[in-house]
Amino acid sequence: MSDQTRLAPGDTAPDFTLLSDEGTEVSLAGLLGEGRKVIVYFYPAAMTPGCTKQACDFTDSLDALQAAGYTVVGISKDAPAKLAKFRERDGLTITLLSDTDLATHKAYGAYGEKKLYGKLVQGVIRSTFVVGTDGRIELAQYNVKATGHVAKLRKDLGVATPA
């Protein structure tokens, strides 16, 4: 694999300001300013089966995560208009952010070489990060699976399963 940057617990989370599916600017600093921890997850493409499953799992778990002090943001390279369609189509309640130039993906090590069907390609690496209220990475998970990931994350964070 390449020497792309990977974040680890204790690292300062790269700040970002990105457009949401609603066309508003959302920054990591602003979210942390609310005194909450932030779950930042990167996914390859809106409206694809795996990414839809993951976004729906986060939406289904949102109340439990928020009650435990977490805000959830999903980041992809899709434009805000496509993210708005994704939200509408699947009834998503999580915040969806657009990173069309991939700068935030790269800052988090969520874009680079990966294996796809046995071939080495450049692309989005499905990744999840938990950023503490101090702006430091508490959890960094790369190459996560779309299915079952949110349940595992809740378990890792000690957040009860939604009823």
TrEMBL record:
Q: InterPro entries of this UniProt entry?
A: AhpC/TSA (IPR000866), Peroxiredoxin_BCP/PrxQ (IPR050924), Thioredoxin-like_sf (IPR036249), Thioredoxin_domain (IPR013766)
Catalysed reaction equations from the record: a hydroperoxide + [thioredoxin]-dithiol = an alcohol + [thioredoxin]-disulfide + H2O
Span of the signal peptide: none
Q: What is its EC number?
A: 1.11.1.24
Thioredoxin domain residues are 7-162
Matches recorded under Pfam families: AhpC-TSA
Q: Which GO terms describe its molecular function?
A: thioredoxin-dependent peroxiredoxin activity
Q: Enumerate the Gene3D superfamilies for this protein.
A: Glutaredoxin
Record keywords, A-Z: Antioxidant, Disulfide bond, Oxidoreductase, Peroxidase, Redox-active center
Please indicate which superkingdom the organism of origin belongs to.
Bacteria
| PANTHER family referenced in this protein's UniProt entry, alphabetically | AHPC_TSA FAMILY PROTEIN, THIOREDOXIN-DEPENDENT PEROXIDE REDUCTASE
> What's the family?
Belongs to the peroxiredoxin family. BCP/PrxQ subfamily.
**What does this protein do, in the record's words?**
Thiol-specific peroxidase that catalyzes the reduction of hydrogen peroxide and organic hydroperoxides to water and alcohols, respectively. Plays a role in cell protection against oxidative stress by detoxifying peroxides and as sensor of hydrogen peroxide-mediated signaling events.
User: What is this protein identified as?
Assistant: thioredoxin-dependent peroxiredoxin
The species this protein was found in: Nocardioides ginsengisoli
List the gene name: bcp
